[in-house]
Write a structure and sequence with these properties.
309 residues, five-stranded mixed beta sheet, alpha/beta, single chain, Nucleotidyltransferase, domain 5, elongated, 12 helices, two-stranded antiparallel ribbon, disordered C terminus
């Protein structure tokens, strides 16, 4: 579009009033990747995608089970869902997608262990655990997964007494190797839940290749959205939210033509409950139209079912 900065902003001002909503297709996918991108404090957009396209998104205050459930209601239950283990997702999946198998992203498991051990552990126990965590990324079949679990069980037995060491501080027990214990507890919980090698189980049951990480959404969606927000860092919170919505909509399988978008999509005027009354002492400008009040009424903007189109 021709024109300088102010002219351009004036010409595109009408588009900021539109809320792009994910189309409801009813398509059942084998694998769905789930993750959230934070826009500001208490503002997160939860996103569901397959490899190469976005399925749905949901605006929420946090990654709680209610928010994840609202997103899941827009999508038919897949065979497997891959996530980084965000809070509330497992609870929502049990309620909305009871038959869906959950795969914990193995790269995020490795990162969780690495944060506890660092990349250069000083203790033999930490070095062995870090090596085990790296091997986890290479376990791609049933044999490798079983060998990893056996090796991990051996590590737990070997260092059990070492990890029980503690000192007394002010009469309270304080474990000497608290960070290593934390890494062990993470792996123990995931092994008990059975979410680390879901992809291997599906390979054995259904054949084919199944995803073990959520790199498809991390690199294909989240990285692009962070780049978008970084390149346009001066946007208000509301514009940042809508920019994410627009990007997600543009990367759905069949976005509508521009004329249909203008006709079908809701605007600020349509969504009367988008903003609720709040304190008149405004602490920060979130870009909200004044007539809607000052705070987002999050419960009013959940659209778990098919919109009017």
């Amino acid at each position: 579009m021709a024109g300088g900065g102010r002219t351009f902003r004036r010409r595109v001002s009408e588009f900021w009033k539109i809320w792009p909503i994910a189309p409801y297709t009813g398509e059942v996918c084998d694998v769905v990747f789930l993750d959230g991108i934070w826009i500001a404090r208490h503002v997160v957009v939860l996103i569901a995608s397959t490899r190469g396209r976005v399925l749905a998104w949901h605006l929420a205050q946090s990654e709680c089970s209610e928010a994840w459930a609202a997103l899941m209601l827009r999508i038919p239950a897949p065979v497997m869902a891959v996530s980084d283990g965000s809070s509330g997702l497992a609870k929502a999946a049990r309620a909305i997608w009871p038959a869906t198998r959950i795969q914990r992203c193995l790269f995020h498991v490795f990162e969780s262990v690495k944060r506890c051990t660092t990349t250069r552990p000083k203790l033999d126990c930490g070095r062995e655990l870090y090596t085990l965590a790296r091997k986890l990324l290479k376990a791609k079949d049933a044999g490798a997964a079983a060998a990893w679990l056996v090796e991990y069980a051996g590590w737990c037995t070997k260092w059990e007494r070492f990890l029980r060491e503690f000192t007394l501080k002010d009469g309270k027990k304080q474990y000497t190797h608290e960070r290593l214990r934390k890494a062990r507890n993470i792996l123990n919980r995931l092994a008990k839940e059975g979410t680390m090698f879901t992809f291997v189980e599906l390979q054995e049951e259904l054949g084919g290749t199944w995803e073990s990480t959520n790199n498809a959404i991390e690199g294909g969606v989240n990285a692009q959205l962070r780049k978008l927000l970084r390149n346009h860092s001066g946007m208000t919170t509301m514009h940042r939210i809508k920019a994410v919505f627009w990007w997600c909509y543009a990367h759905t399988e069949c976005p509508l033509a521009p004329a249909e978008v203008l006709r079908m999509m809701p605007t600020d005027g349509d969504v009367e409950g988008l903003f609720a009354s709040a304190s008149s002492n405004r602490k920060e400008n979130d870009g909200a139209p004044e007539e809607y009040g000052l705070g987002i009424a999050w419960g009013e903007f959940h659209m778990p079912t098919e919109y009017r189109q």
